[in-house]
Specification:
The protein has 259 residues and is of the alpha/beta class. 40% of the residues lie in helices and 24% in strands. The chain contains ten helices and 13 strands. Strands 1, 4, 5, 6, 7 and 13 form a six-stranded mixed beta sheet that branches.
């Protein structure tokens, strides 16, 4: 009986050793990305962060920064449009390697991903038809509006916090379309997108933004435990020091938090 017990304990120790060694020898995200030769970036269509030019190429502050980061790793960059509410699942399933799309550093994001240092300042703002702007210049005045918000976004979180009535939609561009068509009274979107997409000389000249509902910061998300986070933070420091970040920010009208 003692021999059987000893053999059993020995077997359990061997199994534990193999399990531990397998975990310790697991491939890092950096190695994984460099082996396949590309960094797959999860995005949505979000001007001025990630959007397509006339030739279908992805450009914008985030797109340009992601391309430069991939180059620093000696790999190509690939942009993949995702459903925003599925971003953590996409990361964990390795269909993408990071989420780099004006992503607000909410508690949900920080709990579900490994996140970079903040790189950009932002706020959630209320979008309404221009001819009704004077009526909705405070949070209290907006209480009775029906909002369109991107599903799983910081805008949706803010709507919940303020007990606003809202309809979740695919993305922020759709939220703007809902207001323009009259399907919803208002939308809540990122201030950076509002500055690029709403008002005079834009595709939504009949809309405007009024109330800023909060202040927030953007970050990039990776899989939990990813060693790409420290590489990106170092890249951010180097990009800021070289003036590259400032050049991209001025190009796209973005308020970068990196100094």
């Amino acid at each position: 009986m003692k021999k059987i017990l000893a053999l059993t304990l020995c077997l359990l120790m061997v199994i534990a050793c193999f399990a531990g060694c397998g975990k310790a020898g697991a491939e890092s995200d950096l190695t994984y990305v460099q082996k396949k030769g590309k960094l797959v970036v999860g995005i949505t269509d979000f001007e001025p962060m990630d959007y397509q030019d006339a030739n279908g190429n992805w450009i914008g502050f985030d797109a340009d920064m992601a391309t430069a980061f991939a180059k620093s790793l000696n790999v190509e960059v690939e942009f993949v449009e995702i459903e925003w509410n599925n971003k953590i699942m996409e990361l964990d399933g390795k269909t993408i390697d990071c989420v780099w799309n004006g992503m607000t550093l909410t508690d949900e994001v920080k709990n579900g991903m490994a996140t970079s240092n903040p790189y950009c300042n932002n706020a959630q703002v209320v979008i309404v038809p221009k001819d009704k702007a004077a009526q909705y210049s405070t949070k209290e005045a907006c209480k009775d509006l029906k909002f369109a918000v991107e599903d799983g976004s910081a805008g949706q979180d803010v709507a919940k916090e303020n007990n606003f009535s809202f309809t979740p939609v695919l993305d922020q561009a759709t939220a703007l379309m809902e207001v323009a068509s009259g399907t919803c009274d208002a939308a809540i979107i990122d201030s950076l997108m509002a500055a690029a997409m709403v008002g005079e000389n834009t595709g939504y000249a009949q809309l405007t933004y009024t109330v800023a509902l909060n202040s927030e910061e953007y970050g990039v998300g990776f899989r939990k435990g990813s060693d790409l986070v420290s590489r990106l933070n170092t890249f951010f420091e180097e990009s800021a020091a070289s003036g590259q970040t400032k050049a991209f920010a001025e190009k796209y009208g973005v308020q970068a938090a990196l100094k």
